[in-house]
Amino acid sequence: MPARIVSIHYVLTDSSGQAIDSSVGGDPFSYLEGSGQIIPGLENAVTVLAVGDKKRIPVAAPDAYGVRDERLIVTVGRDQLPAPEVSVGDRFRGGQEAGARIFTVTAVDKEQVTLDGNHPLAGRDLVFDVEVVAMRPATDEEISHGHAHGPEGHSH
Ligand code: ZN
Which of 154, 148, 150, 152 is nearest to 133 (CA)? Predict the structure, then answer.
């Protein structure tokens, strides 16, 4: 089956009902199937839906943003940071190599800073309320770029 561009509206909550994110009121979110643009647990469930379908899709943490890894919580000296003045909640990219992570500052004291390299949604069971807005075949250009183009998607 040729790859498709799928457009959805979604409301994302965690399993306790706390709101996390939503596309409602804005443009639908479009992605290229099979490109890894969205988490696998969500993509697999949407693949079998049709345009107009609405579905509640629970995705457990391991199939969403993964379980939390305590080894990704590190304490470093302020002098090791790109900028010494940081606040709790700041984020920056750590490491030079490909696959560098986004670290979030979780604690700050006079000399040291605690950084958490886990995804902010790691360890959380998620619930997506999805409505399929459109499905169409992907263009050759979209397939070669690995993402959706067009008014609802990425543009150059
Ligand atoms: Zn492109």
Answer: 152
Q: Would the pLDDT of 80 be above 90?
A: no
pLDDT band per the 50, 70, 90 thresholds, residue 72: very high
Report how far ligand 1's centroid is from the alpha carbon of 144 (Å): 8
Structure-token pair, residue 71: 């080894």
Q: Residue 38 Cα, ligand 1 centroid: separation in angstroms? A: 16
Burial code (b: 16+ CB inside 10 Å, e: under 16) for 80-94 equals ebeeeebeeebeeeb
Q: What angle do CA 30, 32, 38 make, to 5 degrees?
A: 75
Residues with Cβ–ion distance below 5 A, ligand 1: 145
CA dist 71 and 87 (Å) reads 21
Burial class (CB in 10 A: 0-12, 13-18, 19+), 19: exposed
Tell how far the Cα of 47 is from the centroid of ligand 1, in angstroms: 22
pLDDT tens string 99-130: 678 889 999 998 999 999 998 899 999 999 99
CA 150 to centroid of ligand 1, rounded, Å: 9
